[in-house]
Prior knowledge:
The chain is mainly alpha-helical.
Amino acid sequence: MTPSAASRVPPGEGFIAHVGRRSLEAGRALSDVGTWTPLLAIQMRRLGVDSVPIAIFIAVFTGIVLSLLSSYIFTGAVPMYFVGALVGKTVMMELGPVLTGMALAGRVGASIAAELGTMKVSEQVDALETLAYDRYSYLVVPRVLAATLMFPVVTAFAVAIGVGSGWITAINLLDLSTAEFLKGLKQFYQFKDVWFGLVKSASFGFAVALMGCMRGLATEGGAQGVGQSTTSAVVLGCEAILVLDAFWALVLL
């Protein structure tokens, strides 16, 4: 199956009609609150809480590397307290949300695509519909909403840990004091730095989960098809993150 199979317009149906039909399906799925609400908390734990360890691991080493690189860049040219400014700005606005999103695209996007793909090829999705469950309200909505809500939470943890690890590196390896690091951190800080990264991460979560659901529900061909859908979901999720990153930079900055 080609990567674009999930988005292929059915023969005889125009693009506008296809978009309209998909929009109506999405509206019906969202309005079926009784179906997806009980599943939302479960998915928030699976997609968000269980992803915190990998996000923290990435953030720790991101902060360390940024501190060391900034000390190398600034040596002899810029006051060393600017290490705090570079670490804070970079982690909060760019590397925190993007690296966390990339890591979660691999974990969350692959997990969703593999789970739904297995359900699709084993005809569990069809069985749900015979039991009068809407596939989108039962399978898609709770996962997409959970990822949209939890990606900013995970990113907030990653940002805090990243800045903290940069601070620890600076005071132990770069001979900076805490006061100097905080001086640089506060010098160029704006409240936008925080919410800009969190807005981006929410959109990343939406895109990653949506790609995983689309590819999973479009799976065909048994185990090989599940593998292809999983790979495609991760690739599309990472591509969506990069496109959204550029979009938000253009729109909000």
